[in-house]
């Protein structure tokens, strides 16, 4: 699978070690990547508002999550996301839709821009499955028609990427790759009008 977004490496921001007597280094901070610009100029007349995804409490943080074989959730030491996960995913959804260049506008609810649809989503999984050795991203999405509030379309997007070892850098890279697959599918679905 040679998709253009896989050529972009995961952005890693190295935080300076803590000063003032703290002996431990700060955790690495990882970012998620949006899909690259597609270079298309043909746009539709549709405008979309992208809400922040909802999810269970562990997904509301900036921590990288490991799902244990028994179903328990733990935080992976040594790394964190660059922002709260829902806000980070929302930002990359918006940027990916904008980069595709097919919609009239893409915005957040607070932007007060008149839109045709609202894209709402839920984080069902965004973790390293320790039992299967995979990074799993599972998002459900609904396109809601503005004005009527009717669900115009709904779909679940899932991607799994093998993880060679469970550490912060490897896990974050695999989750970023899985999100890239989900974003590519989601952008195609939104732009197709479904």
Portion of residues in beta strands equals 25-35%
Low-confidence blocks of residues:
1-23
Question: For the terminal residues, how far apart are their CA atoms?
Answer: 24 Å
Number of strands: 10
Order of helices and strands: EEEEEEHEEEEH
Number of helices: 2
Please tell me the overall pLDDT: 87
What spatial form do the alpha-carbon principal axes imply? Answer: elongated
Radius of gyration over all CA atoms, rounded = 18 Å
Helix content: 10-25%
CATH superfamily: ABC-type transport auxiliary lipoprotein component
Based on secondary structure, the structural category is alpha/beta
- By CATH, the architecture is named 3-Layer(aba) Sandwich
Fold-level CATH name? Rossmann fold
Number of domains: 1
Major sheet characteristics: 10 strands, mixed
CATH level 1 name: Alpha Beta
How would you explain this protein's 3D organization?
- The structure is a single chain.
- By secondary structure, this protein is α/β, with parallel strands linked by helices.
- The protein has a single domain, classed as Rossmann fold, CATH 3.40.50.
- Helices cover 21% and strands 34% of the residues.
- The chain is built from two helices and ten strands.
- The protein has helices at residues 85-100, 168-191, and strands at 12-13, 28-30, 47-50, 54-55, 63-67, 73-81, 105-107, 117-129, 134-145, 151-162.
- Strands 1, 2, 3, 4, 5, 6, 7, 8, 9 and 10 form a ten-stranded mixed β-sheet that branches.
- A hairpin with a 4-residue loop joins strand 8 and strand 9.
- Helix 1 crosses helix 2.
- It is elongated.
- The two termini are 24 Å apart.
